[in-house]
């Protein structure tokens, strides 16, 4: 794997040099064949070290080759990784990381400096495999599957069946591990880029994603309501006001909110904005120093292009300049040097103070949004009910049915319910009456038989429990002389509902 990485870097340098020489040769030939007429050609498209297609101008080819050469020269300084020796002290390690982790060591270094190794050893060895196998328990699978084809659509491996399965496994496992977050759009790109930087190792990519969300990024950055992301974007706005006041006032004058261009920066951590090696350099420092690196890089990008941004007179052009400038930032060395050497002091205590203030404002904003959403839902329901009433009134008019007021409709509904209840009571009484008649017949037969066997009967008396819904008993009082009285007596009442007698 190390040899493959080295060959990729060397080929990247050679390809850039060859492309530049070929371009110069073509230009010379074109000038000779067409004197006084310069032929324009599109810059060549090549694959970068992580498999992304990039179109490079001659200047960008030089910048990329220079950065690749510097990375090659840094490799001996990282020999402790390959030799499995202890990592250097914090000061020395910070300097090395800011200069860039060589791509062939990125997987091991990121796992160590991010705390992902510690997280991994705190769980059973089969933890990741168990999460992948428990896919049916994830509530995020449907949205994950929808987003897979949109994840770096131009990348050959990521769009292959193998790549799609790998991204899916990482995201499904994460959605079960962190059910508070589950899945958020943007995590698909983060997971995909982690796979590319870890030589497609799913479990390492999973634990690095866990380290990012659980340890490194501001809490709830990828929560369902994105409240953490809102706090970070508003914090960046405050830092722009402090570090780049002219640009801040210009953005305010254009009504250009910071969220317009920074949402992807905080959700995708620059991996969809910067060229791949530049994004990886940002992640080197992010894994080691934490989320404040994102603010430094954001401010560096804006500072480097502030003069151009100040010439734009609408938010759309501002957004276009920022996107194009970030996408063309192949000089990762210059970007990181600006971020750490030219942005200025940015104490973590100050960032936390701003975050605390903005968190209160974000909470108010989200509550106001929720109230507005509920109000809109109620408004839509009332409008739908009014449309239903209007359609019903129109139908009645067409069919010649007299119109009714809401009060009349309620009275009619109540009358129908009373009618239905009366019908149910009637059925119940009929049932009880039938049982009473049957009991009378049996008592008459018993009385006749008793009279034949005794010359002076005292009478016959019994009670039959009603098996219906009347909630009463049937009292049959025997009388001498062959007369029997029947009455259905509700429980708790002395009032009879029916009287039968026979002679």
In words, what does this structure look like?
This protein is mostly helical. Helix content is 64%, strand content 6%. The chain is built from 21 helices and six strands. It has helices spanning 2-33, 58-74, 79-82, 90-99, 106-113, 116-121, 127-133, 141-147, 161-177, 187-197, 202-216, 227-243, 245-253, 259-267, 276-289, 292-304, 306-309, 315-327, 332-341, 348-399, 406-453; strands at 45-47, 53-55, 462-465, 472-479, 483-490, 499-502. The strands form two sheets. A four-stranded antiparallel sheet has the order 3-4-5-6, covered by helices on one side. The chain has a two-stranded antiparallel ribbon with strand order 1-2. A hairpin with a 5-residue loop joins strand 1 (45-47) and strand 2 (53-55). The radius of gyration is 41 Å and the shape is elongated. The termini are far apart. Mean pLDDT is 84; it is low at 30-38 and 454-503.
